[in-house]
Please model this.
Amino acid sequence: MLRGIKGVKDILPDEIARWQLIEDMARRLSLSYGYQEIRVPVFEMTELFARSIGASTDIVEKEMYTFQDRDGTSLTLRPEATAGVVRAYIEHNLGGSAVSQKFFYLGPMFRHERPQAGRLRQFHQYGVEYFGMRSPLADVEVVSLLWRFLSGLGLPDLTLEINSLGDAADRPPYKAALLEFLKTREDRLCQNCRRRMGTNPLRVLDCKVPGCQTATEDAPRITDHLSAGSRRHFEDVQAGLRDLGIPFSLNSRLVRGLDYYTQTIFEVTSGRLGAQNAVAAGGRYDGLVEALGGASTPAVGFAVGLERVALVLPASAIPRPHSLIFVAAFGEQGVTAGTRVLDELRGLGLRADTDYRASTLKAHLRQADRLGAEYVVIIGDDEVTKGRLLVRNMRTKEQEELPLLTAARSLSSRLKIG
Ligand code: ATP
Ligand code: MG
Model:
């Protein structure tokens, strides 16, 4: 038998209520904050990701699904969506119209990682991108939307951490100071970190190996190397978050796995997630639009990992499905009348179903039980002759007779009130 790919999961009907709830919340909140949906392709030119995410990042070094198109062009399945959104923003001159500079997206991302709990090769993200706003209040808005989304879903044990990476001018002197420090600790660092010292020294601070963490405990802090402007921006973001009552803590070791971030960066973790505890991450990326060939445009955004949200989503948050009405029709005329009633119920927006194989009431009732129906509409030839049908409440077992012609309408008005 052919099986699916490791780390690439089916989302089956018994999990779908969770996903729909999460996606509905994302859509509803994004729209209320003024973000419009954008759908960018799941594959792009490889160069787009290499140039935006950064050549010496985990994603570009080892996680991308890259393949050659038939004409030899190198293509890549998107490992994240910001690069594609920025490309579309530039390509369609979206910055030229004043209205829609705020976008959200939902969809699958692809990374070749070692599959484990909370880490997949195809996973889903909800994210937003806010273009053209340099104000720290844009950072605050984006974090506030993220916080409202996660706390609105009732996710337990959330922590928001923020940091500032400064601007493009702050980074080189800090990198130099960090590198000086790392050289004095080189013998205590893991192989990977020693390599990163040459390519991307900030990533050493992000290493999960305990030895590396203790070795860099007293590393110079980026927040001590910020220009006056960057410091001011960061302080304004913090003040804005406090004003909105969003709890956060400062983490000067926080860095991101993508090179395009500047100024504010943030991450939300859940204490219930175990090792892969990051639910969402984001920050400001003022240089990216220009780096990809657009006009200089400040931007800020986030991405949420939806599998991880689904993992910790409390069961109490998941709404129960609408009541199911099962139509038990049998006998020649019964089936004809029953099919019509079924169609009417569905036309009225009710959830209604039947079993076309069942030819006896007993068989129908068994199936209604399996499906968890709350009402069963019973129509046999006798009922058709009388112009009536029976409605059985499966919980109370009470039964009542209704006129065939108006039964669907009266069930509908009853269920919509109740
Ligand atoms: P991590 O440190 O967990 O590798 P990351 O820094 O690579 O995360 P981002 O690129 O910032 O993650 O993506 C944002 C969010 O997407 C993460 O916080 C996480 O919830 C989710 N995510 C990232 N990679 C995966 C994956 N392979 N499987 C499932 N979710 C993922
Ligand atoms: Mg990663």
Residues 136 and 237 are 5 Å apart (CA to CA). The chain has a mean pLDDT of 94. The domain at 13-170+226-317 is CATH 3.30.930.10 (BirA Bifunctional Protein; domain 2). The longest strand covers residues 122-131.
